[in-house]
Design a protein that fits this description.
The complex is a heterodimer. Chain A is mostly beta strands. Helices cover 0% and strands 41% of the residues of chain A. Chain A is globular. In chain B, β3 and β4 form a beta hairpin. The chains are: A mainly beta, B alpha+beta.
Chain lengths: 371, 98
């Protein structure tokens, strides 16, 4: 019997929500790791019961939790993230050099074919990998040390590596994105990297079309069309059709092109979802209306999806890792808000209903399709 | 035996109920007590001290005998009452936030 498992990270713990293929009646468990910030929880594509959770706090730092039974029980694994060699400095907010310091794991990306191999994107921006199920983590230093690292500067949320895409078609190709450095690509399985930001334009940096320095919020890819990437930048929604070699803006008729998450329909590579947010100074939806926007044409032409979402007095945000899709025949779309709601749509966004309404602020939402 | 008390969130993490008693070989210092703690509970590695530098995490404090030992050298001997087990060594999550 088909079903889904929704993995939710919040400011004060993790939650696991399951439903059958109808996605109407939900079983909610948690909080796991109550009181801790859970930046991300993600399952392995190679073993649906293998989950990894990033647990952290300002007091006690980073803990990594692993589940081998789909989130029923958890075991702490390795939590030592040491940069390779002498890490050097990056730019601080005021432009002065600042030593590279590990703060937390923002994102786990389990490798497609091996539940023991996981990539971790961390703050201060770096890419780590485990090949033993999380017991030991080694930096893949080629990204941080490729040359532009000393000029990277943190975004308002910290200098985080938040997006990792392991290309399903070209097995040695990976993408990563850093706020506020930009997008990067490797063609040798993460050993060496180069910036892929041509076409991005950011008014908040001295050279608006510089090679690095862009505040990329999120990148999404559809596995059937791996050279097409969709990007939600600080401002601007962007698209590349040449694996990041060049980008063009597809904001079109969006009410605002500021936002954090972006995702692609599981079966329609031209159907894209964003959640427009008023501005970088006002992190809430325009007009107090929570609207997901969907483009069925790969961008430029967007339609608001409002059925079941609050259309007055709504001033929540949707963070960059807080949207996901399932791969059931009727593609499900999910997102969580800083107001603690997790919304689900079982019909590709046409209608929405909350799974829960009163969680702590939601940091991340991932979905596993179970069969 | 050295008596040690952890903040609630670390007791939960390490599945510890109440106070811990630790046998510490050699001189009893903050470093040797925390080394013994982490040896018995590896999950606590990195949660009290940085794993690379060994430095106390900024929002963790060390108290004993009504004194704040957070800024003492880690290899300095702990108070006699802690060494004899009369008083506990307290690992504290500093008051922070709002």
């Amino acid at each position: 019997m088909s079903g889904v498992r929704v993995l939710v990270g919040t400011r004060k713990g993790a939650f696991v929500m399951t439903a059958d293929g109808k996605r109407k009646d939900w079983d909610v468990t948690g909080p796991f790791f109550g009181g801790w910030e859970i930046y991300h929880v993600k399952g392995s594509p190679a073993d649906k019961n293998r989950l990894y959770a990033s647990q952290s706090s300002g007091w006690s730092g980073q803990v990594v939790q692993r589940s081998d039974d789909g989130g029923k029980t958890w075991t702490p694994v390795g939590n030592k993230f040491s940069y390779d060699g002498v890490p050097g400095t990056h730019q601080w907010y005021d432009g002065t050099p600042h030593p590279w310091e590990f703060a937390r794991v923002w994102h786990f990306e389990p490798a497609p074919g091996d539940p023991d191999t996981v990539y971790a994107g961390v703050e201060d921006a770096g890419l780590f990998r485990t090949t033993d199920g999380g017991q030991n983590w080694q930096e893949m230093p080629g990204l941080r040390t490729h040359g532009s690292g000393p000029s990277w500067q943190p975004g308002a949320g910290g200098m985080c590596l938040h997006t990792i895409i392991v290309d399903p078609a070209h097995h040695d190709r990976m993408f990563a994105a850093i706020s506020a450095a930009g997008a990067f690509r490797s063609d040798d399985a993460g050993q060496t990297w180069r910036p892929i930001n041509r076409g991005l334009h950011s008014e908040g940096i001295p050279d608006s079309d510089a090679e690095v320095g862009h505040c990329v919020h999120r990148i999404a890819q559809h596995p059937s069309r791996p050279d097409t990437l969709y990007m939600q930048k600080h401002w601007d929604v962007m698209r590349s059709d040449d694996a990041g070699e060049s980008w063009r803006e597809i904001s079109g008729n969006l009410p605002t092109d500021f936002g954090f998450p972006i995702d692609v329909h599981a079966h329609e590579p031209d159907t894209v979802y964003v959640v427009p947010i008023t501005s970088d100074g006002e992190h809430f939806p325009p007009e107090g209306k929570l609207r997901v926007y969907r483009s069925r044409s790969g961008g430029d032409d967007w339609e608001p999806l409002t059925n079941g979402l609050p259309q007055e007095h709504c001033y929540v945000n949707v963070l960059r890792d807080a949207m996901s899709v399932d791969s059931l025949d009727d593609c499900g779309v999910y997102f969580g808000t800083t107001g603690g709601q997790v919304y689900a749509s079982a019909d590709a966004g046409d209608t929405w209903a909350p799974i829960v309404r009163d969680l702590p602020a939601v940091l991340s939402v991932e979905v596993q399709t179970l069969s | 035996m050295i008596r040690l008390v952890l903040p609630a969130h670390l007791r939960t993490l390490a599945h510890i109920d109440g106070e811990i008693e630790l046998a510490v070989a050699g001189e009893v210092t903050q470093r040797t007590v925390l080394d013994a703690l982490e040896a018995r509970y590896p999950v606590l590695r990195g949660t009290i001290r940085d794993q690379d530098t060994g430095k106390r995490r900024p929002f963790i404090r060390f108290f004993a005998c009504e004194e704040d030992l957070s800024h003492e050298q880690p290899d300095l001997g702990l108070p006699e009452d802690v060494v004899k087990g009369k008083e506990p060594y307290l690992v504290i999550a500093a008051m922070a936030g709002g």
